[in-house]
Specification:
The chain is 38% helix and 17% strand. By secondary structure, it is an alpha+beta fold.
Length: 393
């Protein structure tokens, strides 16, 4: 069996950055222009929160003279949040110089193998050790070219990629199913709440409690959901930890939590809580607003309300405070004007949305397990500790 060999990454592919784009070249539409922030959002499967564009003429000029990322090429975040890789799909875009490093023209290495290698502990250790800068860390192209990589034969690379990619493909399939289910339910809810034939004589507080009382003892260890784990797209938090309670908003199954502070509110940081144990109370940031349904009202309704464009616009318009730290109050949220929805319409919506949110929860929990399995296998496969013929999938 052919041995694993050590290479410099610069010997396995071409590595470069982009041609500089100036701020005055940004357009309101055209070819998407990505910085590290947007690539991280794409990698997570999230919506891009601050889209930038350049003109198609400028893009074509760069493409003809210098080339642009093509399907199968890889980008790596190289300033600030370092070492997040992204494989380019069949898409047209350009990227910011310095923020991202471009890998292409692969020689003797599977491009997706390199992607997974950058996710491994060995690569992340090198990134942290070799980064320069004090206030903002950065990776130079010359440094990346000199990274040492222990590489198996190409047929072994392909098998490792197949194992890891099968897990990621299933995760992506589950995510797409969840997105589709949620979009359908959101459309149903929006049609219900925006029905112009219904009199708008109710307030949100007529349907739900805002920041209801929940009890956790000080220093009691409970599940904690940080603002960074609140999704901008989808209802399921990306993660949680166990942490002693020392303040923060409290919630339980059936509650919707949403960010009340800029820019998290505008970005849509929201989650529906339906994965806790029966009777369990969890907590999170003081910058959350919690909505809990009145008896007889489907709890899921307030998640879709929090994603409704009119409601979000209302919340943003009612933010107060100093620039950069503006918040919407619980009082303004509970005074959001709602239509007087017939009880039979509410019950019909509740039956549909309960099944949908349960399905989304199950796929999301499955993705957590798949991600954990992938993260366990990845370093062992990349180091050769675990042989591909020892994996049964």
């Amino acid at each position: 069996m052919e041995a694993w060999k050590e290479y410099k990454i610069g010997d396995l592919c071409s590595i470069s950055s982009s041609k500089r784009i100036f701020a005055n070249e940004y357009q309101l539409s055209g070819i998407p222009f990505y910085r590290g922030k947007e690539i991280i959002e794409k990698q997570k499967g999230e919506s891009i929160t601050n889209e930038l564009y350049i003109s198609e003429d400028r893009y074509n000029e760069i493409k003809d003279k210098f080339g642009t990322p093509q399907k199968g090429d890889m980008l790596l975040t190289s300033v600030g949040t370092l070492g997040i890789p992204y494989i380019v799909k069949d898409e047209k875009f350009y990227f910011k110089d310095g923020n991202l490093t471009w890998f292409y023209n692969f020689r003797g290495i599977n491009n997706v193998y390199l992607y997974y290698w950058f996710l491994s502990p060995a690569a992340q250790y090198l990134i942290n050790a070799k980064a320069i800068g004090s206030t903002q860390k950065a990776l130079t192209i010359e440094t990346l070219k000199k990274f040492d990589l222990l590489l198996p034969p190409i047929n072994v690379q392909d098998k490792i990629v197949s194992i890891l990619k099968s897990l990621d493909d299933k995760i992506e399939l589950n995510r797409r199913i969840n997105d589709n289910l949620e979009q359908q339910m959101q459309a149903t809810f929006d049609e219900l709440i925006m029905n112009e034939e219904l009199p708008r004589t109710k307030f949100l507080k007529d349907y739900a409690f805002v920041n209801p009382s929940r009890t956790i003892k000080k220093d009691e260890v409970k599940r904690y959901i940080d603002m960074s784990s609140l999704p901008t797209k989808g209802s399921f938090p990306s993660d949680w930890i166990d942490k002693p309670y020392n303040g923060g908003m409290k919630f339980q199954n059936g509650d919707t939590i949403m960010a009340r502070i800029t820019p998290c509110l505008e970005n849509g940081k929201t989650a529906y809580i339906n994965f806790l144990e029966e009777g369990e109370v969890a907590f999170g940031s003081t910058e959350y607003i919690v909505m809990s349904a009145h008896e007889g009202i489907p709890s899921e309704m307030f998640y879709f309300l929090a994603r409704n464009e009119d409601f979000v616009s209302y919340a943003v318009a009612h933010m107060n405070g100093s620039s950069g730290r503006q918040r919407v109050s619980a009082t303004d949220i509970e005074n959001y004007i709602m239509p007087d929805i017939p009880i039979h319409s509410i019950e019909m919506f509740g039956k549909k949305t309960y099944a949908v949110m349960k399905c989304i929860k199950n796929y999301s929990l499955e993705n957590r397990k798949l991600s954990s399995l992938r993260d366990t296998l990845l370093p062992r496969l990349m180091s050769g500790e675990l042989k591909v013929n020892e994996i049964n999938m």
